[in-house]
Amino acid sequence: MKIAVVGAGAMGSLFGALLSENGNDVWLYDIWKEHVNAVNENGLIIERKGKIRTVKLNATVDSGNIGPVELTIIFVKSTQTESAAETAYRLAGSGGLVMTLQNGMGNADAVAKFIEAERILVGTTAHGATMLGPGKIRHAGVGPTTIGMWAPGEKGHTRARQFAEFFSRAGIETKAVKDVRSVVWQKLFINVGINAITALTGIKNGQILDLATTRELSRAAVEEAIDVARAESIKVEKETVAQVFKVAEATALNRSSMGQDVDHQRQTEISAINGFIVREANRLGLKAPVNQTLTALIETLQYHYK
Ligand code: NAD
C-alpha cells in the first residue's frame, strides 16, 4: 500500500518505519529539513531496548513529490493539525483515507473540515517514541492501538477492521471499535490528569501518586473532564480516575510529552487537552476551574519562554 506520513517526528517516523518494514511504499513528509535529509542519506535509525536498526525510507519536505496515496497518517502535534490536514487532503486525492492517532481532542474535527468523516480513521496508540536527533528515534514503548471510522456505521467499521488487520500484520497490534469517540476521550482523561501537572512541576509521571495533594489535583482535573464527557453523552468507563493513576504508575519513570515540551521550551498541546475541557465546559454551562488554572499556567509558561 502507498502510505504518506504527515509529521514524521518521533511517532510518524516510527509508524512509517514499521509499515515500510512490512513491505509498504511509505513516504515521510515533514517540514524539518535536517531530519528529512538525514533519513534520505542514512535511513531512519531506530533504537529499541539498546539495539539499533536502520530502515530505508523516502522522506521529503515537499508533499508535491509524493503523489496520491491510499492512506495518510497525520502525526504532527495537535497545534499543527489544521495545516497537516490540508496536506493530507491533497495527498488522499478522491479515494484515500486519512488517519489521526494524535493526542488531544479536536484533531479529527480539524481533518473533517477538509475530508468526509467516511474517510477519516481516528484512534489512539500506546506506542511511545522519542526523537533523539535528526534521523534518529527511540522506540520507547509498545502497546495496543485502537482505531475507528469517524463516521459511525457498519460500512465504516468494516473498513476500520480491515485497516486494523493491516496494521497488526505490520507488528502494530491494532483493534477496530465502533465507538471511537469514547476511546479518544479515555486517552484524553489520562492526558488531562497527568500532562499539565507534570509539565508545571518538573516531576515524572509516577510522582503524581507520591503526595495526596498531587493525586487530588489530578483527580479533580479528570473529574471535571468526566462531567464534560457525560454532558456530551460519551460513555465513560467506570474507575476512570483509578485508570489514570494506573497509567501514571505504569509509566512512572517517564516524563510526559507535555513535560518534555516545556523542558525544551516548545509549544505544548495544552489547548487540545485541558484547554479543550475548559472550552467545552463553558459551552455547556459547566465549571472546570482546575483545568482552567492548569491551562492558564501552561499558557503563561509558554508565553515567557526565552
Ligand atoms: P514530534 O514533535 O516528535 O513530531 C511532530 C513532527 O511534525 C515534527 O517533526 C515537526 O517538524 C512536524 N511538523 C510540524 N508541523 C508540520 C506540518 N505543517 N507539516 C508536516 N510536518 C510538520 O511529535 P510526536 O511525539 O511524534 O507526537 C505526534 C503526536 O502523537 C502528538 O499529538 C502526540 O501527543 C501524539 N503521541 C505521541 C506519543 C509519543 O510517545 N511521542 C505517543 C502517543 C501519541
Describe this structure in words.
The chain has helices spanning 10-21, 33-42, 81-92, 107-111, 154-169, 180-201, 212-231, 240-250, 257-263, 274-284, 289-303; strands spanning 2-6, 25-29, 44-48, 51-55, 58-60, 71-74, 97-100, 120-125, 128-133, 136-141, 145-149, 174-176. With 306 residues, the protein is an alpha/beta fold. The chain folds into 2 domains: 2-178, 3-Layer(aba) Sandwich (Rossmann fold); 182-303, N-(1-d-carboxylethyl)-l-norvaline Dehydrogenase, domain 2. Strands 5-2-1-6-7-8-11-12 form an 8-stranded mixed sheet, with helices on both faces. It has a 4-stranded mixed sheet with strand order 4-3-10-9. Helix 6 packs across helix 8 (240-250), helix 6 packs across helix 11 (289-303) and helix 10 (274-284) crosses helix 11. The relative contact order is 0.11. The model has no long low-confidence stretch (mean pLDDT 97). Bound molecules: nicotinamide-adenine-dinucleotide (NAD).
Can you lay out the helices and strands and say which pair or pack?
Layout (H helix, E strand, L loop, with lengths): L1 E5 L3 H12 L3 E5 L3 H10 L1 E5 L2 E5 L2 E3 L10 E4 L6 H12 L4 E4 L6 H5 L8 E6 L2 E6 L2 E6 L3 E5 L4 H16 L4 E3 L3 H22 L10 H20 L8 H11 L6 H7 L10 H11 L4 H15 L3
Parallel strand pairs: 1-2, 1-6, 2-5, 3-10, 6-7, 7-8, 11-12
Antiparallel strand pairs: 3-4, 8-11, 9-10
The structure holds nicotinamide-adenine-dinucleotide.
The site of nicotinamide-adenine-dinucleotide has 27 residues, from helix 1, helix 3 and strand 9.
Task: Name the features.
46% helix; alpha/beta; 12 strands; 11 helices; binds nicotinamide-adenine-dinucleotide; Rossmann fold; eight-stranded mixed beta sheet; N-(1-d-carboxylethyl)-l-norvaline Dehydrogenase, domain 2
